[in-house]
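// run 5 | inverse folding | seed 20
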């Protein structure tokens, strides 16, 4: 199950990065691809374009907070 979630997450992120690169005419190597930029820039941008974006954003950051508490 973890593998499936990882594959879906990777497809989502890299598809969106390619989409943004195409729209803005910025090369992919200039778009943040790792670390905090990926978590706090790309994922919120993806969530903002989905239906129920406010609820999804709250859930995303709640999960991030709970992951931080777990460690």
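// decoded
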């Amino acid at each position: 199950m973890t593998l499936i979630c990882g594959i879906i997450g990777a497809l989502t992120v890299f598809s969106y990065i390619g989409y943004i690169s195409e729209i803005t005419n910025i090369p992919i190597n200039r778009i943040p691809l790792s670390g905090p930029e990926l978590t706090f820039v790309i994922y919120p941008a993806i969530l903002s374009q989905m239906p129920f974006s406010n609820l999804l954003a709250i859930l995303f950051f709640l999960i991030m907070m709970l992951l931080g508490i777990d460690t």
